[in-house]
Structure formats: C-alpha cells, structure tokens
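agent> call fold_tool(seq_1)
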Amino acid sequence: MKEKKEVTIYDIAQLLDLSTATVSRALQDHPAINKNTKKKIQDAAKEMGYRHNNFASNLRKQKTNTIGIIVHELNSNFITSVLAGIEKISTEAGYDLIITHSSESFKKETANVLNLFHKRVDGIIASLAFDTKGLDHFQPFFDKKIPVIFFDRVEENSDNAKVVIDNYKNGYQATQHLIEQGSKRIVIVTANLSRNVYAQRFKGYKDALFDNGIAFDENLVLIKDLSEKCGREAAEQILEMKPMPDAAFITNDFSAAVCMQTLKEHGIRIPEDIAIVGFNNDAISKIVEPQLTTVNYPGIDIGEIAARNLIAHLKGEVNITQTNTIIVKSDLIIRKSSVRKG
C-alpha cells in the first residue's frame, strides 16, 4: 500500500486559495490574521491531517527547544524527583526533554553525550556515573558554548555550573547525631569514594569522629553499590564484626531499609543494639519500622533550580558560565531508628 503524502502548508493554501504566508501565520495563531480566516485554515489543517514540521522550523532557527538530560540511573526516588522538578520548569517554558541514563557506565555516558550533541539539544543537565573521570567527553558542548549544568554527581574541581547539597556538612551531622546518642563504633556504608557525593559524606564522617576523640577504623568502612543486595551484604558483615558496631551511617535510604530489615530478622534491635541513619529522605524511610533517620535531599528543588538556571541562560537572562556552585539546603531529619532513650 502506497504511503500517504505528508500534508504541507502549500496544500492547505491551494485548497483555500490563500497565500502560504497567510496559512503559516494562521497556524502559528498570529494576531494579524482575521479570526474567521484563522479558524477556516486551522479546521482545514486538522481535517487534512497536517502536522507542523518542528524539525525544519528548528533548523531555520538554529534552536530545537529541547534539553538533554543525562542521569546515572532511573531506578531511584531521588532521580525521579529531580526529573519531576526539571519537567515542571521546562514544560512551563515550552521545552521538550530527551532523557538518557548511563547505567553507572562512563562508556555509556560518553555515547549519550555524543548522541545528544548530534540531536542538537539546546543545553544539558547531567549527573555523572560512578566511574566518570574528567569532563573531556562534554568538550563538543563547551566548544560550541552550549550550556551544561551538572547536579548531584559532579566534578568538584571544574568551573562548570553545578547544583549540589553540602554533602560534607550532612555526613558530619549524621555522624555527630549518632555520637550524641552514645555511639562510639560507627560503621559507614557508602559507595565509590572517587565520586564527589560519597567522598564528601565520608570526609564529614571522619571529621566528626576526630572532633569527638573517636579513632577512625578502616574496618568500619564498607564500600558498596548501594543496591538492595548491598543492604543485605552490609547487614551480614555488621553481624560478623566483633564487637558489633553500635551505629551505622548508610548513605542511601533503600540500602539502609534493607539492612535494617535483615538485622531485625537476626534479632537485632533498632536503635537499642544499633542506631541507623540513612540518606535521601526517600518514601521508604517513613514506611520502615522504626522510621528511618535520614538526610533530606530535595530532588524536586534541585531539578527546578537546574532547569530554571539553564533556561534563563538560553533566554539570555543569566550567564551560567559565571555561576560556579549552587548549594541547595538539606537537613538531618531525626526519627526513631537512631534515637536512644536515655
């Protein structure tokens, strides 16, 4: 069967005996076109199955009204909330999104960056994979002065715009809180320390121990991938430690919840035997029993701030190349998993 020819503004103009300029303006709802003429043209376009050719229009304007998003995973409450924030602001401003994810692979992240470059996105909002080193793969964007804003997982020593929380402060606060509950043997369960977020939380943990006269013990540092499996493995390792830790700072709520559940299955009382603090303030932190003390990581705010700054740059209202780091407020939320009566 022969494929039906795409309807153009020339077809509509010929049918209605009007100029193509009049048809084009009417389809763009131009105020200079008579209301009745506009309705006649729009009705004819609908009946004929006309589709506006965004691609051709964008090529003429050298603009696609599209923002590329690069995230390290999609199976995450935090990332979902960031995307919700980005989507809210970008939709209001008339921008479409192309979302890619690296599955924690630098190789895949590099391919995604190149793909978005060839798709001619107007700008990028990105969070880096576990093993990403440097930003050379973003150089095509930098060379063409296409704006890039990083969030959460960033290269701290770069001059690029970034939206983050104070991971060091939060790591310090979480550890300090556990110490104030009488804990002295605190295990930390975290991820790749070459990535800024985990390195800074770890530094906060170490400094809080030091400031309270507690010796750092590298045997109490468990580097994991912060998955469901990680939570179970962490619990099993904690159970084998002699003496068993009296507190745990787990830098991901889902892993913390799985770890708590596994410990409880082995008769460990929380917080009496081991006090636990998570990170992110995911929904699961309020569902587990006892409810999980955690750090509020405001994903929606981060997404909105990143998108708002990128779009403002694209409109010429601000210059994000002169913006270094935007720090979003985050706080420790104290719940029953870490509070000892006493």
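agent> call fold_tool(seq_2)
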Amino acid sequence: MQSIVIDSGPLIALFNGNDRYHEQAVRFIQNLQGNLYTNIAVITEVVHMLDFSQQAQQDFLTWVEQAVIIDQGTVEDWESIIQLLQKYADLPADFADASLIVLCQRLNTLDVASIDSDFTVYRNYLKKPFNNLFWD
C-alpha cells in the first residue's frame, strides 16, 4: 500500500471548516488510496493552529490517532533535519517540513500531501522531486 507523508496544512484544513482548503482536504481524505504518515512536529503545528476551538483540537487528536501512522523516529533524524534546515535556509524551511523530508527518505516515498509550495522545491536525497498528492 502507498505511503503518503502528510503535512500540517491539509490536516488543519480538515478540522477547520472556515479554511479555504477545507473542501479539498475532505475530498483528499475521502479519496485516499494509501497509508498516511506524520510525526509529532506536524501534530504540534496542527493543534496550535486549531487553538480557536478546544473541541477541534480534541477531534483532531482522536482522529489522527486512528487514521494516521504517527512516526516516532524524529529524534533519531535530528542531524539530517539540521542539515536540511541549513540546505533550505533560503526558503526558509521549518522544522516540521525538514522532519517530513527525512521521514519520506526513511519510508522510501516521494508521495506527500501539503498545501505548501515549498514541496515543489524540496528534493529527496537522490535529488528527486516530491509528488504532492494534495493537488492531484
């Protein structure tokens, strides 16, 4: 089954009905063909951005626990994340994005779901572009 690494943007949109990408996020999840992966850095971003509603935060945390594989390897990826932050300092890349790039490398996938245009610039360690399925 396909491994898809999901960034905070689609997750925020999924749980915020006022987000301009809400309907697209709902369709993306409804049509999902694969396993979603993310990490604590992304989950932290999402909960922070859903701070307008404690219920939305709780709903997200309950859903993500059931629907997404939460990777535990971010601490082991620390050096690689730092290297990517240095490499993409001109964007600037953030910690969550860098951690997801490394997660993609560990999962051997180029498939991501993100609203960020930065994922059109980022490359994996073989210099291959990512395939952003959120825009498909």
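agent> summarizing second result for user.
The radius of gyration is 14 Å. The CA atoms of residues 119 and 130 lie 7 Å apart.
agent> awaiting next instruction.
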